[in-house]
Amino acid sequence: MAEYTPYNAPLNPASFSTLAFILIVIGLIFAGTFFVQQVTTSKQNRNLVQELSGAGLASVFLGFGTLFLLLTVGIYV
Question: Name one GO cellular component term (predicted).
Answer without folding.
Answer: oligosaccharyltransferase complex
